[in-house]
């Protein structure tokens, strides 16, 4: 897709590291002007410099996605530098493992505010700055949105909300030519989430349960984002795209399939 996004403005929230930063690099390599945003001034400055070192035109903005007024200013500054937003990715997230009885109301609210309210804030604050028609908006969600998980009540609730924000905005904003979709990554190698589960026994068990028998890569998610923002996806909106090696299908281990071994 080299050059396919030349001159386009791609804005990625939550992009100081991981999947979201990989998405920013992919679009930058394809010729886009990239704005990256995250709450840590030091980390987002480093992320923007890394993009520039790779040859991209990049702007870094420090802002917390829970700060709506700050986001309004961030979009105004980004558009002043790069023009209207053609592609917007909202991927800021917070998570931890904890049983509900050890999750305080404040801890629960923190994840809701970052993941769910943050996604809404990013999308809503972007409206006046989008290319209309033609903008592609993408939320980064997770399998917890549809599959309840122990020790993840906060993330399950937040991501379920992200899915519905995606679908509701797709309904409301489609008439203006704005498409809204989400990507639901499965187990992705070299990410903070998987590093927390990286002991060899746990890793082998996860891989054996996947239909495709391996972790995905950050590049897999970046390529999905580029597809959803390309002319090839011009008739796709309100879709939650699973990029998960079959994780959403359930346990594909030999034992679960009744094959043994």
CATH level 1 name: Alpha Beta
Q: Kindly state the number of beta strands.
A: 7
Low-confidence stretches: none
Radius of gyration: 18 Å
- Main β sheet profile: 7 strands, parallel
Number of domains: 1
- The fourth-level CATH homologous superfamily is NAD(P)-binding Rossmann-like Domain
What structural class should be given to the helix and strand makeup?
A: alpha/beta
What separation lies between the terminal Cα atoms? Answer: 41 Å
How would you characterize the overall build of this protein?
This protein is an alpha/beta fold. It has a single domain (9-188, 220-243), classed as Rossmann fold (3-Layer(aba) Sandwich). 41% of the residues lie in helices and 14% in strands. The chain contains 8 helices and 7 strands; from the N terminus they run E-H-E-H-E-H-E-H-E-H-E-H-H-H-E. A 7-stranded parallel sheet has the order 3-2-1-4-5-6-7, with helices on both faces. Helix 1 (18-29) packs across helix 8 (218-228).
Please name the defining characteristics of this protein.
261 residues, alpha/beta, Rossmann fold, seven-stranded parallel beta sheet, 41% helix
List the topology elements:
Layout: E1 9-13, H1 18-29, E2 33-38, H2 41-53, E3 57-62, H3 68-82, E4 87-90, H4 105-126, E5 136-140, H5 153-173, E6 179-185, H6 192-195, H7 200-209, H8 218-228, E7 240-243
Parallel strand pairs: 1-2, 1-4, 2-3, 4-5, 5-6, 6-7
Helix pairs in contact: 1-8, 3-4, 4-5
GO molecular function: 2,4-dienoyl-CoA reductase (NADPH) activity
Protein name: Short-chain dehydrogenase
Keywords: NADP, Oxidoreductase
């Amino acid at each position: 897709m080299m050059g396919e996004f030349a001159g386009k403005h791609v804005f990625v929230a939550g992009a100081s590291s991981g999947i979201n930063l990989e998405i920013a690099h992919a679009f930058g390599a394809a010729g886009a002007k990239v704005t990256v945003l995250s709450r840590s001034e030091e980390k987002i400055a480093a992320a923007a410099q890394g993009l520039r070192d790779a040859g991209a035109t990049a702007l870094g903005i420090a802002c917390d996605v829970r700060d709506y007024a700050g986001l309004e200013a961030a979009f105004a500054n980004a558009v002043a530098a790069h023009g209207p937003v053609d592609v917007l990715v909202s991927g800021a997230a917070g998570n931890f493992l904890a049983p509900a009885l050890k999750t305080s109301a404040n801890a629960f609210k923190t994840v809701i505010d970052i993941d769910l309210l943050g996604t809404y804030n990013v999308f809503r604050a972007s409206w006046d700055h989008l290319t209309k028609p033609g903008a592609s908006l993408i939320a980064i969600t997770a399998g917890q949105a549809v599959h309840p998980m122990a020790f993840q009540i906060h993330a399950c609730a937040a991501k379920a909300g992200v899915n519905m924000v995606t679908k509701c905005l797709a309904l409301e904003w489609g008439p203006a030519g704005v498409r809204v979709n989400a990507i639901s990554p499965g187990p992705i190698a070299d990410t903070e989430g998987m590093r927390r589960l990286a002991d060899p026994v746990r890793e082998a068990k996860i891989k054996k349960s996947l239909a495709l028998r391996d972790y995905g890569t950050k590049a897999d998610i970046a390529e999905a984002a580029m597809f959803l923002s390309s002319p090839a996806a011009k008739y796709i909106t309100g879709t939650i795209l699973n990029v998960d090696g079959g994780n959403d299908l359930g346990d594909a281990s030999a034992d679960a399939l009744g094959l043994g071994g």
